[in-house]
Design goal:
This protein is an alpha/beta fold and 283 residues long. Helix content is 40%, strand content 16%. The protein has helices at 13-23, 45-58, 78-98, 115-132, 156-165, 178-183, 192-202, 236-244, 269-282; strands at residues 3-6, 27-30, 63-66, 102-105, 108-109, 139-143, 151-152, 172-177, 208-213, 215-216, 227-228, 254-256. The strands form three sheets. Strands 1-2-3-4-6-8-9-12 form an eight-stranded parallel barrel. A two-stranded antiparallel sheet has the order 5-7.
């Protein structure tokens, strides 16, 4: 079961792979550019080559991208909507240049326009993007969300409405975030089998391509997104043990987005969280 964490690209995208290797990742997730800026300097050929060399030397694979938090493909604001499509196109260009298989993306927020309108706008956006990127290998993964404010994607039905409206649906899949899904009301702690049965019935297991493994500081159904360390939050160790031992998911990328930092003894928290997941798998 390939597990890893989100890593910083400071100093160049290739550095994220080296950082991942240092803490014991099998895989890494990256932003291909600053997540809090619209513009991005072009990826130089030298940087792309260094990234691919580091990937080969370390054996870390796959590397997944996450899109910018600024992008909102459901926005009713015309200017922001068009900027979001342009920015998402750049994300796809960069991921394709790096040879990445997936970009994980937050679906978007309807900002008062209503769920139906927002979901339709996301699907329209994806159809535009897939038309502009014909021949690209990179696929987009819709991430399950916590549902704060008007954010869409906190119900499995939201995800499926989007997929149903996408013409080239072979280029789209799902990333399930454990924190987000739990606080959105899916009780994977006490109703593990039922939640995944519901996912299968509504979306289909074949669409599930990756996990974000995060515990949560907030309670079931709170719709508040607060990631926490594995086993230290509301989900607890048993939930993650079930996930790590679930052979349906043994080949899927498992990515930590837990808080960075060190414990009271100066140990890196990524190292600790990765070790806990591996111990749960072996237990």
């Amino acid at each position: 079961m390939p597990i890893g964490a989100h890593m910083s690209i400071a100093g160049g995208v290739g550095n994220a792979i080296l950082r991942g290797k240092e803490v014991g990742c099998d895989i890494v997730q990256i932003f291909t550019k600053s997540s809090n800026q619209w513009k991005a300097r072009p990826l130089a050929e030298e940087e792309i080559n260094q990234f691919k060399k580091n990937r080969k030397d370390t054996g870390i694979w796959p590397v997944l991208a996450h899109n910018s938090y600024l992008i909102n493909l459901a926005s009713p604001d015309t200017e922001l909507y068009e900027k979001s499509i342009d920015a998402m196109f750049i994300e796809m260009e960069r991921a394709e240049a790096l040879g990445l298989p997936y970009i994980i993306m937050h679906p978007g927020a309807h900002v008062g326009s209503g769920e139906e309108t927002g979901l339709a706008r996301i699907a329209d956006s994806l159809n535009i993007l897939f038309e502009k990127t014909k021949g690209y290998k990179v696929r987009l993964l819709l991430e399950t969300t916590a549902g704060q404010g008007t954010v869409l994607g906190h119900r499995f039905e939201h995800i499926m409405v989007i997929i149903d409206k996408v013409k080239d649906d072979k280029r789209i899949g799902v990333c399930l975030d454990t924190c987000h899904s739990y606080v959105a009301g899916y009780d994977i702690k006490n109703r593990y089998d039922q939640v995944f049965q519901e996912f299968d019935e509504i979306i289909g297991m074949k669409r599930l391509k990756a996990f974000h493994l995060n515990d949560t500081l907030k309670v079931l159904g709170s719709r508040v997104d607060r990631h926490w360390h594995i086993g230290k939050g509301e989900l607890g160790l048993e939930t993650f043990e079930r996930l790590m031992k679930d052979d349906r998911f043994k080949d899927l990328p498992m990515i930590l987005e837990t808080p960075k930092g060190v414990d009271e003894d100066g140990n890196d928290m990524d190292v600790i969280n990765l070790r806990i997941l591996r111990e749960l798998r072996r237990k």
